[in-house]
Design brief:
This protein has 314 residues and is an all-alpha fold. It is built from 10 helices and 4 strands; from the N terminus they run H-H-H-E-H-E-H-H-H-H-E-H-E-H.
Length: 314
């Protein structure tokens, strides 16, 4: 049954992503809200649900290493795999606000996590993200949401909204899409974890690779579908927004419930998060216009392959 649900999970992920993009795009057009804002909020939150649930359940179950590895591994996959594949499907132009505000904010989130985990400001002993640190992280998430709602209010689409599907239908699409992503992501992760255990893979590697990639599948499919449908702003906003959500919302909320221990290996993974984001910044700076080209997307996938090799060696 685990393997049957594993296969069925991919079907739910793909269809759920399709419904979510369709519903979110329709709402954005109806209210003249930019697709970037929709990608940074509704889509990012919906596709981050698997990471949230896996991290909370694993932390409460005393397997915080799996949950933390899931978040950091997902952030690495969001940039190198998701934006890499989406850029190969269709080159991704990067809006001005994204490379001046959202991308630097994602870097700030990673640096904040590393600093609070290692500074031991509110506790002594082994490095960890405790309840006080979690509260600080959630404060920065609150600031990010204020920014999102401010640009949503100030940056309405200038064109008149086209005739779209009824609002209730769009909401139902989003609800069905998130439900499909939730169950699909859970079934894929459970099946992949069971398969990995058969081969004797460690819990740390499971969290950083199979679970991270499994919980990133919603973002992957959503961004790929958005890129295919030429909703490139939503594809980029989804990946970058999910990275910010993963650290500020998921780690912040989970650590308020239960402290998350932090190891030296986790610092190495935060460094890889910064390296992947730096690769994204370089891709934006290189070229005649701020965009991720197809060949740069291919380079992202190569970098991730090298990271997987070093992770297995570690």
């Amino acid at each position: 049954m685990v393997y049957l649900l594993f296969a069925l999970g991919f079907v739910f992920l793909i269809k759920g992503a399709d419904l979510l993009v369709a519903g979110a795009s329709a709402i954005g057009r109806r209210f003249r809200i930019s697709e970037m804002v929709i990608g940074l909020t509704i889509v990012s939150f919906g596709t981050s649900l698997p990471e949230l649930l896996v991290t909370i359940m694993s932390s409460l179950d005393g397997r915080a290493e799996l949950g933390l590895g899931n978040v950091l591994g997902s952030n690495i996959a969001n940039v190198l795999i998701i934006l890499g594949i989406a850029a190969i499907i269709r080159p991704l132009p990067i809006p001005r606000d994204t490379y001046f505000i959202e991308i630097p904010f994602s870097v700030l989130a990673a640096l904040l996590l590393g600093f609070l985990a290692n500074a031991n400001i509110f506790h002594t002993g082994p490095s960890a993200i405790g309840r006080y640190e979690g509260g600080i992280i959630l404060y920065f998430f609150f600031l990010f949401m204020i920014y999102i709602f401010s640009i949503a209010r100030n940056k309405k689409e200038t064109t008149e909204p086209a005739i779209t599907q009824p609002l209730l239908k769009s909401v139902i699409f989003i609800g069905l899409g998130i439900t499909g992503l939730y169950f699909g992501g859970g079934w894929v992760v459970n099946g992949a974890t069971e398969i990995a255990r058969l081969f004797g893979v460690s819990e740390s590697v499971i969290g950083l690779t199979i679970v991270a990639i499994g919980t990133s599948l919603p973002e992957l499919v959503t961004s790929a579908v958005a890129a295919y449908k030429n909703n490139t702003d939503m594809a980029v906003g989804n990946a970058i927004g999910s990275n910010i959500f993963n650290i500020l919302w998921i780690i912040g909320f989970t650590s308020v419930l239960t402290p998350i221990p932090f190891s030296d290996h986790s610092n190495q993974d935060i460094l890889m998060v910064l390296i992947s984001t730096s690769a994204l910044i370089m891709a934006v700076l290189i070229g005649k216009r701020p965009a991720i080209s197809r060949w740069e997307g291919l380079i992202f996938l190569v970098i991730y392959s090298v990271y997987l090799y070093t992770l297995i060696q570690r």
